[in-house]
Design goal:
Helices cover about 85% and strands about 0% of the residues. The chain is mainly alpha-helical.
């Protein structure tokens, strides 16, 4: 019963956490549009292969890492900057066909490796999983003794995979139904989303680390 609870809790947290629009989902959406479902699956497998280790090690060291304020400040501060960098990258790629083709041709050499590399740059997942793992442990929502921790991590990666796939398929459906979305998603809407996320995370960063 505790094993099933671990899988369910991990799946729920990860599924919901993977749905908000992020650059991993955006790249997955582009891969799906241009190469189809099979290559998208390889890409997502690359993404969750890194997330597996991130979740596992943040689970093991959740309390110690959470107490390292300087490390968390660096990670979260870089994550804020990274949102604005992503906004510029997607704006540039959306307004330049040659740049867009260059980016896609680079990652299309191996979509699994692309998923691995892009997941390695998803720095925001570290404080995300640190805080969630510590919350779930302190609230006794999960049991991590012996091999039970692996079932929790299994639930999380399954949640990420299905959550990202659900969002990618939803974006594809909407882009086919709505001409405006198809035309302006990459070059306008997504950069604005990243700018909004950067501002939101910047405010949270200021409130957390700089306000007395």
């Amino acid at each position: 019963m505790k094993i099933l609870k671990n899988i369910f809790v991990g799946f729920l947290v990860s599924f919901i956490g993977s749905i908000p629009l992020g650059y991993l989902n955006v790249v997955g959406f582009e891969i799906y549009k241009q190469r189809g479902l099979d290559q998208t699956v390889f890409y997502l497998l690359g993404v969750i292969s890194i997330e597996f280790f991130v979740i596992y090690f943040t689970l093991l060291f959740a309390e110690n890492l959470t107490n390292n304020k300087k490390l968390l400040q660096f990670i979260e501060g870089f994550s804020v900057l990274f949102m604005f960098i992503l906004a510029y990258i997607f704006y540039s790629s959306g307004n330049s066909e040659s740049i867009n083709k260059t980016i896609f041709s680079t990652i299309s050499q191996n979509f699994f490796i692309a998923g691995v590399l892009l997941s390695c740059t998803n720095f925001i997942q570290i404080p995300f999983w640190l805080s969630w793992n510590l919350y779930l442990l302190n609230g006794n929502f999960i049991e991590t003794s012996n091999s039970r921790k692996y079932f929790y991590v299994l639930g999380t990666v399954l949640g990420t995979f299905l959550g990202m796939m659900a969002l990618i398929l939803s974006l594809n459906y909407l882009s086919l139904q709505i001409d405006f979305l198809s035309k302006y998603l990459i070059k306008c809407i997504i950069p604005m989303v990243f700018i909004g996320l950067g501002i939101y995370q910047g405010i949270k960063f200021y409130n957390k680390f700089n306000r007395s």
